[in-house]
Amino acid sequence: MDHAEIARRFVEREYPQAEAVVLAGSTARGERTPTSDVDLLVIGPAEMFGPGEDSRAATYAFGGEVFEVFAYTPDAFTRWVERGLADHRPLLLNMLIDGLPVRAGALLESLRARWAPVRDAGPQVDPHELEVRRYIVTDVLDDLRDATDSLERHVLAALLFERLGQLLLLDAGRWLATGKHLPRCLRAWDPDRTARLADPLLEGDDAAFLAAAEAELEALGGRLQAGFTR
């Protein structure tokens, strides 16, 4: 199935005034699963929207596919990109830069030229934020060590992996990731260190997982608790 062609027909129907359209996500990467939707980044004039609108995140059914559309005016796109950068999650920039053009032109070229260096530079993280995250990891690690309920231990182990993994990425100058993208980003950063942390978690070996987490925390500066001001 030619998803780019379906996307072109969808845009012609729903966003005919769009100046830049990018096919993104698993469809663009060639990694679709049976439940994958089609992610589209759409940028164009205010006429694409109703009164008082300059952005829209909406889901559509078209051509036998589910479309997840993220539509913006150029100014709204900049505003939402800056929010993502502040959160260390450049999701819109990933769509813009890594996706496949469906409707190209001067606007798409200028946006990519402007924002690619920003993404490539990595997140700008305040040292205090790293300390706050290290404090949180310390707290979750202790909660897991003390937990006796099986369900609580499962939940806390997953939470510890997430919080520690995100801290590792930021400390390494990498952008944040969540959900299924977290292990992908961790493996892209350092597959060996990721495996040392993930393998005992997958095997259900809490003692080994705690030891691996403590070793990573130590490499990040160690425990942070008493005397720390958030």
From TrEMBL:
<feature type="domain" description="Polymerase nucleotidyl transferase">
    <location>
        <begin position="7"/>
        <end position="47"/>
    </location>
</feature>
<dbReference type="Pfam" id="PF01909">
    <property type="entry name" value="NTP_transf_2"/>
</dbReference>
<dbReference type="GO" id="GO:0016779">
    <property type="term" value="F:nucleotidyltransferase activity"/>
</dbReference>
<protein>
    <submittedName>
        <fullName>Nucleotidyltransferase domain-containing protein</fullName>
    </submittedName>
</protein>
<keyword id="KW-0808">Transferase</keyword>
<dbReference type="InterPro" id="IPR002934">
    <property type="entry name" value="Polymerase_NTP_transf_dom"/>
</dbReference>
<dbReference type="InterPro" id="IPR043519">
    <property type="entry name" value="NT_sf"/>
</dbReference>
